[in-house]
Amino acid sequence: MDRVRLNLANPQELLEIPGIARAEADAIIKFRAEHGPIADARQLSRLLGRDQLSEAVLAHIDFDPADVTAPEAPGA
């Protein structure tokens, strides 16, 4: 199973997460544009107005921040 990189995903990719509706995907995109990456499940659940996220949702999400880049190769 591939996990969706929450902080890089477009709206269509966000809809691949079980239980995420179009309005929630739009809210995630808007939040990221205004505030930057979503840090963790607690922040995401608050954004979505939920007490907590289901295991099915969490199993499909990768919270790696969008601004992380790979280190340069030696000698680059």
Q: Please indicate the percent range of residues in DSSP E strands (runs of 2 or more).
A: 5-15%
- Low-confidence segments: none
- Which class do the helix and strand fractions yield? mainly alpha
Could you spell the SSE succession in H and E letters? EHHHHE
Structure at a glance:
With 76 residues, the chain is mainly alpha-helical. The protein has one domain. The chain has helices spanning 11-14, 22-35, 41-48, 55-58; strands at residues 4-5, 61-62.
Plain-language structure description:
The chain has 76 residues and is mainly alpha-helical. It has one domain. The chain is 39% helix and 5% strand. The chain has 4 helices and 2 strands. The model has no long low-confidence stretch (mean pLDDT 87).
List keywords for this structure.
mainly alpha, 76 residues, globular, single chain
SSE layout:
Blueprint: E1 4-5, H1 11-14, H2 22-35, H3 41-48, H4 55-58, E2 61-62
Parallel strand pairs: 1-2
